């Protein structure tokens, strides 16, 4: 033990003597000379680049931290932390720690270094990468771009979904947004099975389509129109989409926006990987169908003073599909309405609302999903009776869910639902027979 300490002390004294007595020029020459006889290259990635933040450095923090426990050479010291904006713990390398990452069969030897500059009162931080000279081209063209791509995926998967609104009375989003901890997912969403799968596939195809959208010269965005009677799951579908994509939600209340220029400013301040939601668009402002000559009824429109400006149809079209729409990537736009025929066709065409999703009244298939979710049953003697009743009345999934939530006992709960449906059937006998349209998904029509 004593001999080991003596050796360490001797090395430290020798190193100090070299720094004190050997000129810096000679040290640089010796380092360059030694470099000629080594097969390794060293690459330095500092925390800043040309007086601005070095994005590669911060990508490395995420990438190497996520690999800290998955490499054979686990670092001896690892940092760990968490804040309100991420879902899981974040790991990283501590100062002077090393890790070996293997990429395409080649060893990439990383070390994390830091040093406090007393003159600048600033801690300089950097990563050093050592690799064999023959891999230099691969590191530049494949490895470093791969790190940036993987860091983005890690960041996107770990970020907490935020909910932003414009309901503060000013033309701007609320400052930080609030964490959206909505429990709705596609697993718990009561929706026709085939339609649900088509929506999931369309969303997945969209998030994988960055290169395709660039290839065809289109902005990387996707529009969905959700329409149908109240209580059919439009808001629940939006929450499931946000949780599936891990996208922030920006809920836009058009009647609270004072002008077209204010609307443009709002969209410019949205983040990428986000969903813009305009609920009940036919009621927000006067954007009704010009071809049908519709005018909003007194209860549909928000009253405004004569001198007060408002968002126009032209302004909305330019905001979601004009040059402004290219100022952001990976965005989804969702409009909801109870009355599709009240919306101007210019808003509905492909490129604006690409998919039209009809969410209709509860079907027996939807009921079975609700029964499994709320009562943990897949079958029951009362199911045939409920199937017949659902085919005879117009009842929303929200109404059915409300009845199933009243009592946890399956037998009693289903009996209560049967009574509720029979009451609706009796009440509807004096009115016209129901005309229920099944849930469906349709592509938007071409340009107008």
What is the strand arrangement across the widest sheet?
A: 10-9-12-13-14-11-15-16
CATH class of the largest domain: Alpha Beta
* Count of folded domains: 3
Rg measurement, Å: 30 Å
Q: pLDDT below 50 for ≥5 consecutive residues: which ranges?
A: 296-302
Distance N terminus to C terminus? 85 Å
| Helix segment tally | 15
Mean pLDDT: 84
Give a nutshell description of this structure.
By secondary structure, this protein is α/β, with parallel strands linked by helices.
Question: Any overview of this molecule?
Answer:
- The protein is of the alpha/beta class.
- Helix content is 40%, strand content 19%.
- The chain is built from 15 helices and 16 strands.
- The chain has helices spanning 2-21, 24-35, 55-66, 136-158, 193-207, 210-216, 234-245, 260-268, 281-284, 313-321, 345-348, 364-375, 383-392, 397-406, 410-428, and strands at 40-46, 48-49, 52-53, 78-81, 90-93, 98-103, 106-117, 122-132, 162-165, 178-179, 221-227, 248-251, 274-278, 331-337, 355-358, 440-443.
- The strands form four sheets. An eight-stranded mixed beta sheet has the order 10-9-12-13-14-11-15-16. The chain has a four-stranded antiparallel beta sheet with strand order 1-8-7-6, covered by helices on one side. Strands 2-3 form a two-stranded antiparallel sheet.
- β12, α8 and β13 form a beta-alpha-beta unit.
- The chain is elongated.
Question: Which key phrases capture this entry?
Answer:
single chain; 448 residues; alpha/beta; Rossmann fold; 3 domains; eight-stranded mixed beta sheet; four-stranded antiparallel beta sheet; 15 helices; 19% strand; elongated; ATP-binding; P-loop_NTPase
């Amino acid at each position: 033990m004593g001999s080991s300490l003596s050796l360490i002390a001797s090395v430290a004294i020798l190193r100090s003597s070299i720094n004190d007595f050997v000129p810096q020029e000679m040290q640089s020459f010796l380092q360059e000379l030694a470099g000629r006889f080594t097969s390794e290259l060293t690459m330095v990635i500092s925390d800043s680049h040309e007086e601005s933040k070095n994005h590669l450095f911060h990508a490395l923090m995420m990438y190497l931290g996520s690999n800290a426990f998955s490499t054979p050479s686990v670092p001896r010291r690892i940092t760990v932390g968490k804040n309100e904006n991420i879902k899981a713990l974040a790991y990283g390398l501590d100062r002077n720690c090393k890790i070996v990452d293997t990429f395409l069969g080649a060893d990439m030897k990383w070390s994390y270094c830091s040093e406090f500059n007393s003159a600048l009162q600033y801690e300089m931080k950097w990563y050093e990468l050592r690799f064999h000279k023959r891999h230099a081209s691969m590191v530049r063209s494949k490895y470093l771009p791969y790190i940036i791509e993987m860091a983005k995926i890690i960041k996107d998967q770990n970020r907490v979904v935020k909910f932003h609104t414009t309901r503060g009375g000013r033309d701007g989003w609320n400052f930080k947004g609030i964490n959206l901890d909505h429990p709705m997912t596609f697993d718990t969403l009561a929706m026709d099975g085939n339609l649900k799968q088509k929506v999931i596939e369309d969303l997945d195809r969209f998030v994988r389509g960055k290169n395709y959208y660039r290839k065809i010269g289109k902005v990387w965005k996707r529009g969905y129109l959700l329409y149908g009677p109240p209580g059919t799951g439009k808001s629940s579908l939006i929450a499931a989409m946000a949780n599936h994509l891990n996208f922030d939600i920006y809920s836009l209340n058009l009647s609270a926006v004072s002008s077209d220029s204010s609307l443009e400013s709002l969209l410019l301040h949205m983040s990428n990987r986000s969903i813009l939601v305009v609920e009940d668009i036919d009621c927000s402002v006067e954007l009704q169908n010009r071809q049908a000559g519709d005018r909003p009824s007194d209860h549909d429109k928000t009253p405004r003073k004569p001198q007060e400006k408002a968002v126009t149809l032209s302004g909305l079209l330019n905001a979601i599909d004009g040059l402004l729409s290219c100022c952001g990537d990976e965005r989804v736009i969702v409009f909801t309405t109870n009355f599709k025929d009240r919306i101007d066709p210019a808003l509905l065409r492909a490129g604006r609302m690409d998919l039209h999703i009809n969410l209709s009244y509860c079907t027996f298939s939807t009921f079975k999903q609700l029964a499994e979710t709320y009562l943990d049953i897949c079958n029951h003697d009362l199911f045939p009776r409920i199937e017949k009743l659902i085919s005879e009345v117009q009842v929303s999934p929200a109404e059915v869910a409300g009845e199933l939530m009243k009592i946890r006992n399956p037998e009693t709960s289903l009996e209560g639902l049967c009574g509720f449906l029979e009451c609706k059937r009796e009440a509807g006998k004096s009115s016209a027979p129901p005309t229920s349209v099944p849930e469906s998904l349709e592509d938007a029509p071409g340009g107008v």
